Fold:
Amino acid sequence: MAEAFPDVGPIQYEGPDSKNPLAFKHYNPEEEVEGRTLRDLLRYSVCYWHTFRATGTDPFGAATLQRPWDDGSDSIENALRRVDAAFEFISKLGAPFYCFHDRDVAPEGASLAETNKNLDAVVARLKEKQGETGIQLLWGTANLFSHPRFMHGAATTCNADVFAYAAAQVKKAIEVTHELGGVNYVFWGGREGYHNLYNTDMQRELDHLARFMHMAKEHAQSIGFTGQFLFEPKPKEPTKHQYDFDAAACLNFIGRNGLDGVVKLNVETNHATLAGHTMMHEMEYARIHNALGSIDANTGDLLLGWDTDQFPTDIYLTTQVMLVILKQGGLAPGGVNFDAKVRRESFDPVDLFHAHIGGMDAFARGAKIAARIRADGVLEDFVKNRYRTFDEGIGAKIENGAAKFAELESYMLDKGEAAPNESGRQEYLENVINDYL
Ligand code: XLS
Ligand code: NI
Ligand code: NI
Structure:
């Protein structure tokens, strides 16, 4: 096939002074940050659904995006052309990974058997292209939300046949992820949630979801798939209340259902903010529970209350994200997946390059800024000092379990009043962070 992006060559690192919009100013894949190349630290991934399946439709208007390689049909030929365009794009961009849902890459057939056959045909081409280009699969997943059969949910549906269908679909999706050497497998709850409790047996639905995850784990083990399972929190949309609301809700579900260590989290920026959290909060909460597996890098819009999935360009945000990633020592086998789409007004194919270059540069900057903050120890030293009363004396006894209420009471009766507090210095610290930007 003719090139999909004939006017764009491989994107090069040209440094901060470059005026070339089709070059990286900050993402030099070979540059080392905290002993790791940016390529290995960031593990960038392009997502198939937004980048190769989005058309620009919204609830008010028709498709706008120009994708000359895509005839808009559901044919296998079209799906295969799309694979070629996708791998050309990802190679030229220089991203090491990609992600997909089963239904992004191959069309649904008239029956499950036909659908699986379609998927196999496209997976063969994906495998060939991975071999040719060296691009790897960060994660696979199943689309359990687009088809009308999933209107009441998939693993949490009230229709047992739909549960069975979803199970068959996930079985196949794990198998093709394994076939393609995928290093993670993601569960985003799609329609796992509810709009109204009057018609919902929450307990049954949650039990079914847990059963589903265990079956997935058992099947993965039986075929030798050792990739990391990831649960992706999101509070709402499409349902009013998604069961995987936020990191805390997911970790509660995981812990209560014997899935600790089996399932980690794929944390997404726009989902964090929809839940009323910052991305840094969600990542840190996951990290301290040893559950920060991977991230979906995007951003929402303060003025719009839905999952707009925009490309991340805010250096404050990427610095905060990178502070957590560096603290954890990286994300591998997870990565930074751009679960983001160009606006419907950005309809030229070249806009896909501008969008990804911007996101990759923003994270590279965030990584370098975060590393400087960490090297100087400004936050670490402050926080350590802030909690120093727990390092010895009564504080150490509280932490190691030696102190009981009675001892604390006599300690305080003796002392009469607590030692004075010290300033939290929030504004000072915010200024310090600004000095690094
Ligand atoms: C939707 C989710 C979805 C997952 C993959 O809001 O972000 O794209 O990442 O199913
Ligand atoms: Ni996502
Ligand atoms: Ni999302």
Remarks:
- The CA atoms of residues 390 and 396 lie 5 Å apart.
- The longest strand covers residues 136-141.
- The first helix runs from residue 38 to 42.
- Residues 101, 141, 186, 188, 232, 234, 268, 296, 307, 339 surround D-xylose (ligand 1) (CB under 6 Å).
